[in-house]
Amino acid sequence: MKNVEEARETPQGADRQEELGTGERSTRNRVARSILDHGPSTVAELAARLVLTQAAVRRHLDALVTDDVVEAREQRVYGARTRGRPAKVFALTDCGRDAFDQSYDKLAADALRWIADREGGPDAVAAFARARLAAQAAGYRTAVEDAGPGKRAEALARALSADGYAATARSAPVGEQLCQHHCPVAHVAEQFPQLCEAETEIFAELLGTHVQRLATIAHGDGVCTTFIPKISPDSADRDPADEDFTNSDNASASTAGRNPA
Fold first, then answer.
1. Residues 121-145: tens digit of each pLDDT
2. Contact 37/28 with Cβ under 8 angstroms?
3. pTM for this prediction
């Protein structure tokens, strides 16, 4: 029944030509962009603006709702309410808005540049990066300390993944590799490597051992990769909390940046 109704509503070949011309994903993005530009919209309004059939718009909206990009709401009525139920409108969710450029990277870079100019140059940025990572690592510390000596890297990877870093830990010759497949601050870290350096330092402090950063997304690599040497029995018994993260002379300082190799 649904297919018959859609067929009646659709001009001959219109849906097919629309799909062939722009593709499912491109058209779906146009629907979301139209809602961003014009605010919560009805199916009829979207169809008119995008020159699509209402059936096609509904199909794309269903997919966008499933992906948590848009949500259906009851349309607000100002003045006297007419008979019948208000038309349903579709609005962007927070997740949907985040898919568009919000200039957060530029804001963060501008803030760090202001800190560098006003508060002491690169050293001030490094101090900020350490303080930020120290606060962020409070939750990581619990996860790492609760893990066994041979499971610390894996526990850290899970904690990082919960913060959006898509991290994994895997065995490597004479140690392990901690891989972060996503970096939420990569664009800012391109300009301020202190962010990567502070992260490497906190990894060493949490794991209780020297670590080496082999690659970073901020430098154009596909994955942020940190090498963790096999921890000796003596170092495995050491409490990571005993390390002084604020001390720039700790074990990771010489390898906080990316390995030029």
1. 999 999 999 999 999 898 899 999 9
2. no
3. 0.60
